[in-house]
Design a protein that fits this description.
Length: 248
């Protein structure tokens, strides 16, 4: 930030980040193995200095998490925080050769990627040309090739598989009455809200979207007068349309 944008304010130079454990590493096969994967990833995040952390539930490769799996995900964080001792040191891996080498490698690769995006004309131009989408698809393809070729071992998927019937994992089933209850809540909201203020907020949002205004304050203002998420999305869709990925 200092070198590229000449930033001076300490707050703009601070790296504050949230970490979520990897959804892409969750497997539908032997899903309870995901508890261990998530714990390792969460510990890595804490060792890396994250300020905020979300741990995935082990059954999210199968569907919405159950109460039990969510509780295990929460307990994973609590065990790391309360029992591991890792949170008692500001930088427990500081100075480790492996970490410093990996940090340098990440920095070099990140700067190289930023240079490529600059070469595309910037992030927006890259999206319009499909650069980011192509990079994501190439990464997913290489990952799958490595798994199928057993260059990358995934326990329970391409190695250490258990033959025969596996223990059943409960899957969340959403009660169909939830939809009807939500419709009733929405109808009550619309009936009791002041019609004039939401209408003005939506008009202001559309006007801002048609121009160059910062939309975040306009969206917040709309939410504060009970404009719904669906209405906000519909208004923005009316201005910007629906994103269609470019053909690669």
């Amino acid at each position: 930030m200092r070198e590229r944008y000449s930033a001076n304010a300490p707050a703009s130079l601070a790296l504050r980040f949230h970490t979520q454990t990897m959804g892409s590493t969750l497997t539908a096969q032997q899903p309870r193995n995901n508890i261990v994967r998530t714990a390792i990833e969460a510990l890595a995040a804490v060792l890396g200095g994250t300020q905020s952390l979300h741990t995935n539930a082990f059954d999210e490769a199968l569907g919405l998490p159950t109460e039990e799996s969510v509780r295990i995900a929460l307990r994973t964080q609590q065990i790391i925080a309360e029992e591991s001792g890792v949170a008692e040191t500001i930088d427990p891996l500081g100075g480790a050769h492996a970490i410093e080498a990996l940090t340098g490698d990440i920095e070099r690769r990140a700067l190289a990627e930023i240079a490529k995006i600059d070469g595309e004309g910037g992030a927006l131009a890259g999206i319009e040309r499909g650069y980011q989408q192509r990079a994501i698809e190439d990464s997913a393809y290489k990952q799958q090739r490595a798994i199928e070729g057993k260059e990358k071992v995934i326990v329970g998927v391409n190695a250490y598989r258990t033959e025969g019937e596996q223990p059943e994992v409960p899957i969340t089933r959403v009660d169909p009455t939830v939809v009807e209850r939500q419709r009733e809540r929405l109808a009550k909201l619309r009936s009791r809200r002041d019609a004039g203020r939401p209408a003005k907020a939506r008009t202001d949002l559309v006007t801002g979207a048609e121009g160059t205004a910062n939309l975040v304050p306009l969206i917040l203002a709309a939410v504060e007068v009970d404009v719904t998420l669906g209405e906000i999305c519909a208004d923005l869709r009316g201005v910007f349309g629906t994103y269609v990925p470019p053909r690669l």
